[in-house]
């Protein structure tokens, strides 16, 4: 008969101690760093993941709503209200702090916080967190989703140079105007053959390159640069960069056009008044030019309010912090994910009357291009920006240099 001997008291004590330590360490996984200030209650391992809504996250702005839990205790707390869960807490702070699994997240809920951190401290707030979709789509080669590596900086220099306001005014704008004129002529002549105009344009480009005829365009310049020694990235990197520039500009523009079509369907009087302003400035013999911008305050207000009312990117792409930082007595650790609550700030009931309405009064007489507003402190209602459609800081969309509202 086999006998079972009990472990010695020392061994039993050691095993119990290890078990208690293991349980303690597991419970610590969901515990917040007290230096980061108050935040919503967490659960082990998942921390705040269980609080993410299944639908309408950007409208409920779950991350911003979580700030309601910290408003009363956080020294950064404001006395205003912002978008939050329905029937949920409304008082918020400049920043909301929460934890999603192993990651710490700080959501910038206030325009001053965006300016203070992403604009003024862009050197340490310009990184990107690990984004799985970026690796899935391109192996990590997309400019907008890549971490701030040496290759990313070289790519950014290429894009920033070629899309700077000076380059756009001197080289690209006249090409855009010419192409728009040709396209509109084809569309007016053959309205049912919308795709035919694009097919014809592609055929012209292919024929021209096959014949060795060169045109003054950005891709031609970059191809020449690529053939020289010392070009900063590979052929694949070049292809990804050009594809991303085209997709990024086309998709966002198309989205904003759809937003304005929706606004015109809801408010036909706005469309009619905008058309009359265009006719008064341009007549019926020509299309609008960028030189007409100052003469069309109503059209400018339409475009800006579209960006404000239904932003293309309601939460913008996340930033990542390169090193530990402090902001108004709140500790932000290295690697923290920094998110801009664009939708919530656009629909802030303290800054905007009837914040959810399409209301041109917000921008009537506000004749500034988006690039002129970036980083400005006191414009319109004392806010640093007219809207956050292009993001903020060094990671701001380079398309903001294009003459745009």
Automatic annotation (TrEMBL):
Database matches in InterPro entries: Cyt_P450 (IPR001128), Cyt_P450_E_grp-IV (IPR002403), Cyt_P450_sf (IPR036396), Cytochrome_P450_fung (IPR050364)
Binding site for heme: 397
Tagged with keyword Nucleotide-binding: no
Chain segments annotated as coiled-coil in the UniProt record: none
Matches recorded under Gene3D superfamilies: Cytochrome P450
Alphabetized UniProt keyword annotations: Heme, Iron, Metal-binding, Monooxygenase, Oxidoreductase
GO MF, any single term: oxidoreductase activity, acting on paired donors, with incorporation or reduction of molecular oxygen
Similarity comment: Belongs to the cytochrome P450 family.
Name of the protein this chain belongs to: Cytochrome P450
């Amino acid at each position: 008969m086999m006998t079972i001997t009990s472990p010695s008291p020392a061994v039993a004590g050691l095993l119990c101690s290890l078990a208690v330590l293991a349980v303690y360490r597991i419970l610590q996984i969901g515990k917040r760093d007290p230096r980061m200030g108050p935040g919503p209650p967490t659960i082990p391992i998942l921390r705040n993941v269980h609080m993410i809504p299944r639908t309408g996250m950007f409208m409920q702005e779950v991350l911003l709503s979580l700030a309601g839990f910290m408003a009363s205790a956080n020294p950064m707390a404001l006395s205003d209200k912002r978008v939050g869960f329905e029937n949920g807490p409304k008082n918020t702070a400049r920043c909301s702090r929460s934890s999603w699994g192993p990651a710490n997240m700080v959501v910038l809920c206030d325009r001053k916080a965006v300016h203070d951190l992403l604009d003024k401290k862009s050197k340490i707030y310009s990184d990107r967190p690990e984004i799985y979709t970026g690796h899935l789509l391109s192996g990590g080669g997309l400019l907008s989703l890549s971490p701030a590596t040496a290759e990313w900086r070289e790519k950014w220099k290429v894009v920033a140079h070629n899309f700077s306001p000076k380059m756009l005014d001197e080289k690209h704008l006249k090409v855009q105007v010419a192409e728009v004129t040709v396209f509109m002529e084809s569309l007016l002549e053959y309205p049912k053959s919308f795709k035919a105009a694009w097919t014809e344009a592609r055929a012209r480009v292919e024929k021209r390159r096959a014949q060795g005829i060169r045109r003054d365009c950005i891709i031609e310049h970059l191809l020449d640069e690529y053939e020289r020694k010392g070009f900063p990235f590979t052929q694949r990197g070049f292809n990804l960069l050009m594809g991303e520039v085209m997709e990024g500009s086309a998709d966002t523009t198309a989205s904003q056009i759809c937003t304005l079509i929706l606004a015109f369907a809801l408010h036909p009087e706005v469309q009619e008044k905008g058309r009359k302003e265009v006719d008064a400035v341009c007549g019926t013999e020509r299309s609008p030019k960028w030189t007409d911008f100052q003469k069309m305050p109503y059209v400018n207000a339409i475009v800006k309010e579209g960006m404000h009312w239904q932003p293309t990117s309601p939460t913008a792409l996340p930033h990542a912090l390169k090193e530990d930082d402090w902001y108004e007595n709140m500790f932000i650790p290295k690697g923290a994910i920094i998110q801009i609550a664009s939708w919530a700030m656009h629909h802030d009931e303290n800054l905007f009357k009837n914040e959810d309405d399409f209301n041109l009064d917000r921008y009537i007489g506000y004749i500034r291009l988006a690039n002129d507003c970036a980083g400005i402190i006191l414009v319109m209602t004392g806010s640093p920006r007219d809207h956050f459609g292009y993001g903020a800081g060094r990671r701001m969309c380079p398309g903001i240099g294009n003459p745009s509202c």
